[in-house]
Structure formats: structure tokens, C-alpha cells
Target: Metalloendopeptidase OMA1, mitochondrial
Amino acid sequence: MEQYKDSRLPATHPLYQPLLRVAKRLLIANQDLPILTELKWKLSIVEDSALNAFVLPTGHVFFTTAMLNLIENEDQLAVVFAHEMAHAVCSHAIETLSKSQFLDYCIIFFMTAIWTMIPSDGIAIITQYFMEKVMHYTFTLTFSRELEEEADVVGLEMAAKACYDVREGSVLWKRMMMVRDLTGAKGLEFTSTHPSNEHRVSTMEQLMPKVIDIRDKCDCPKLPDIDPRIRAKVIQKKVENVVIARKAGQNLALVPMVTSTGKIVQPQK
Model:
């Protein structure tokens, strides 16, 4: 993509190695999904402070350095990578285009009807503006969140088939919540293209028995006895205390900080 043309890391950069390992493992474990082998997958890492990963319809997957710095291990990396692959598996780009065209036709039909009843340019312009806003918030964003949730579900199943510790998925989204809380970057789910972090954690927790069962049926090694979600709860509690302390103006120099890459840095004692 043009905006990332000058910020892509060279293919020799060490950050590519874990991504390549994860990609290979996911592809081998999910050969029952024909589209995975049909696409010519390509990988790029871009220097960017946004916590983001996305895939193009061609199979070109992008990760930002901030996202990779936030991810703690290859299990979490696999959940994100599989999520992006799931968008391609589910043909979400085609669905989005079809939905967009349908909404355009709806707006044209509605505008034609309004113009027939009230042939006024001013009324037409105002009506079009409000129609586009209503369609955007009521249909476009809702549909986008539905696709993201479907990719979460399919991606988690793909990661399970590749024998990753799928419990790390909810840990990652809890880390995203922590970054949001520490930076104050909150927003309403209603106005977002993605489900909220809380929603995604809830979805993954509901799916956990199913995907762990999928993992077991694939003859995967036993999951570690120590559940990583316990670790996440401890850290999350500390972050909540930090947020409370910050709001109260207490010990501001002794609380964790978030770097420009999204990494949580504990203060030195």
C-alpha cells in the first residue's frame, strides 16, 4: 500500500522470523481450507505506532511494529495471524463490496422517491447527508463488526488446529484493553469498525471450550497447566490500580507507561 511504501522493514529483519514460523504452521494445519493454498500469501511489517494488522484480498498480510511489540509470544501472534487469514477464508472483502453496492442502491432508490415527492435541491442534499449517516452507523459499521467477530471465531479455530495455546487470544485482547486504559484512548463500539476489546474477550471466552476441544481432537500436546489468563488478570488488576492512581493524581511518576509502540513499561523501583 502506498502509505507504507517507505516504512516497510526489509525481509531480512528478525521480526519476520516468528511470523514466518507461525504462517507456515497455520497453513500446514489448515490445508482443509482450499482458499489458503490458492492464495499467494505475502507478508510485510511496517514501522508504525498504531496497534494494527490487516490483510488485503490478495493474501498480503501487514503487521505494524507496534502490534508486534505488544504481542508477547507466538501463541498470541498465531491468533492475530489466523484472524487475518480468516478474513480471506471467509471472503470478507467480497462481502463488504457487495454490501456497499447494495447500500448505494438503497440510497439512490430512497433519494429518487424523495425527489419525486419533493423536487427540491436543498431537501435532496440534506436528505442524502442524513441517509448516508444513518446507513453508515446502522448498517456499514454493524456489518464490519460482524465480519470482525466472524474472523475472530474462524481464526481461533484455525489457531487451535495448529496446536497453539488459544487461551492466549483473550490475554492479547486484555493487553489491548490495558493499553487503551493507560493511554485513555477509549471510544464507543457503536462508532467503530471493530468490536470493543471487552466484546472480543467475551467472545473468545465463550468459544474457549469449543476451540480447546478442536485442539484436543487434532492430537495436540497438552496445554500448559498454568493458564495464561491468570497472569493477565493479575496484570489487569495492577493497571486498574494505576488508572485509579492517575485519576487521583497519586504517584504519577511511579506508574507504568505505554511507549509509542504500545508496549507497557513498568517503572523502576
In short: Residues 228-268 form one domain. The first strand starts at residue 42 and ends at 46. The mean pLDDT is 78.
